[in-house]
Specification:
Rossmann fold; alpha/beta; homodimer; six-stranded mixed β-sheet; 17% strand; 43% helix; 434 Repressor (Amino-terminal Domain); DNA-binding; 3 domains
DNA sequence: ATCATTCGGTAAACCGCTCGACATGGCAAG
DNA sequence: CTTGCCATGTCGAGCGGTTTACCGAATGAT
């Protein structure tokens, strides 16, 4: 079976090559009658234009590169899942395909991130994998390449981003706990991303300057992967460090759940003895007992919005982007009065 | 900043266009001296050849399409995660990129699966999303397109596949339980895939024909998504249906964990009163208490092998493929004598 | 009836790279 | 000193589309 080309369709339908092309691209120049006759042949042969040829001539691959972090269990991360689903949904509806990549050391070392864009394999890149060491991203400052950080920021670098507002989340969380009267708080932070640092710093700041009386905060790092396991270990450390703490704040729900688990394993009642609070509002947060109080981050929306923005950057409708999406407080059973 | 082409590199390095091309493709025809001089210019401009042009001329996109099922939480499925990781690892090492797609109704209706291959956007397709209703896959029987089912089979259709051997798993599981003396068994099956049906049928067959005495098996469907929640509900149904059952076999670990949870919630000791067994050996299986006995499925390996095979199909090294990977019994605390 | 528009379609110049056929120069063998 | 061969480069014909400028016919205004 020979591969058909637009030329074959032209011959068979009796029109010129250009006409077929215009039909396939829904150009208004062509009459309905012609359109129908051409499409009949297209359908008959189940013809689809060669995308490489198309990409070459039109200088667009209609493809988006999505780079995810190199976690041990990347694809089983609910957090990432939400974002990717949002991106996929939007991209597909706009006729774009998704090229998936993992930010392995190999990926970084070979500068695949540049290569993908320079070779025009992708029209733009959505990068969900940034951390504070991702200095190589400087390539994308003032470059002609369409690049966007997803749910990350990079202070000091001119990089586009769409992220939830981690500082705002920190404020909401701090205000909630402080409002409940907590003055001895343990914080499980994530320190390998700038958003994580922003959260920590803002949380500390608010606690320190609370009008009704500053709170004492002890903080520890929850580990590179922000995992439940890391949260569990961190909770132990915090309690050792500040035995009379009345609340634990974790920078994401998974670590908060790990902390709750530690409390259960060590016979501390939540929230009676210790309030526990997370960030993200993953599904599980509502299903544990007691329900986890948290700051809702609509990651699916982050995906949608990121995709919208990168498409606008590609089309040239905007030239830069720094969106911070709002977050909201979700109070469940895991937090109570100090 | 103008986009550079191979022609610019040729001019600047003083060699012909073809020479540059040959250098970039590591053709042995070129001497080391020339190679070095050309590469110097390539590095200088950070040049990467246009992949559309390359694809057009070479008739290969160096891209693999990976289609995943349209589950509500696709990307947070550990099961899929393992497979995708395996595929990614292999594909990348061979210079192939991954184009990700979700088998939404839209994807099916618009025949994207054909379009991707017909338009040469991808050189081959790895399909992880098959179910018993995927009749449209017939397009790929005897077609020139490179297509492979991953951890799925389709009896009656000539489709390539790489899957673990579900029938063998069923045998191992049945033999384990029967060997422990169980004669009243509840089975939580997955009936929306052929591999699921194979597992169920083989399990039933072995139980019915066990030399030391047939076992009675009651089975129910665990739901479309093979989820923990589905397993929980299924366990309830089974116990209602066969109150004296001494073992529950689930077609995957998630459903088994759901069943264990039901047992805990309803005060039945595992394994003293009811043995529970799963399939897959997901990480969590080792961490619950008691540990879940299961049949180990190396899904990462399935990913690796699938990718190997599709690449062989693409290169024409093989023309068809029907691999069944071995599985093994993993005994932990959740199963005991009847 | 004449001329300017509009409408619908076409010719042809690319887009940037691959690869088989062909050219060239140097050297060993006859 | 030819002839024959390697070893290395180069030519140029595609690959399969997109898109702009151009063109003839039909329509409408004067």
């Amino acid at each position: 079976m020979k591969r058909r080309t637009i030329k074959d369709i032209a011959k068979e339908s009796g029109f010129s090559l250009s006409t077929v092309s215009l039909v396939l691209n829904n150009h208004p120049r062509i009459s309905q009658a012609t359109r129908d006759r051409v499409m009949a042949v297209v359908k008959k042969y189940n013809f689809y234009p060669n995308s490489a040829a198309r990409g070459l001539a039109s200088k667009s691959s209609k493809t988006l590169s999505v780079v995810v972090p190199n976690l041990t269990r990347v694809f089983s991360d609910i957090y990432l899942g939400e974002i990717i689903s949002g991106i996929y949904e939007r991209a597909t509806s706009q006729g774009y395909k998704i090229l998936l990549d993992i930010a392995t050391s190999q990926f970084i070392k070979t500068q695949e991130y540049s290569k993908l864009l320079a070779s025009r394999r992708a029209d733009g890149m959505l990068f969900i994998a940034s951390d504070i060491h991702a200095d190589y991203l400087s390539v994308f400052e003032d470059s002609p390449y369409k690049f966007l950080l997803v749910n990350h920021v990079f202070p000091g670098k001119k990089l586009n981003y769409v992220s939830v507002d981690y500082a705002a989340s920190a404020r909401l969380a701090a205000e909630h706990l402080l409002g409940l009267g907590h003055r001895k708080i343990g914080l499980i932070a994530g320190t390998n991303t700038f958003t994580g640092l922003q959260f920590r710093d803002e949380f500390l700041r608010v606690c320190k300057t609370w009008p009704a009386g500053a709170a004492k905060v002890a903080w520890v790092d929850g580990g590179e992967e922000w995992s439940q396991r890391g949260g569990y270990a961190a909770a132990a450390k915090l309690v050792a460090q500040m035995p009379d703490l009345t609340a634990i704040m974790a920078a994401n729900d998974r670590m908060a759940l790990g902390a709750m688990r530690w409390m259960a394993d060590n016979r501390r009642a939540v929230p009676e003895q210790v309030s526990v609070m997370g960030v993200d509002d993953i599904q599980l947060a509502a299903f544990v007992n007691p329900g986890l109080s948290t700051i809702r981050h609509d990651l699916y929306q982050v995906g949608i919005e990121s995709c919208n923005r990168i498409l606008q950057l590609i089309k040239g409708e905007i030239t830069e982007c720094s969106d911070l999406l709002p977050t909201s407080l979700v109070v469940r059973g895991s937090t109570g009065r100090a």
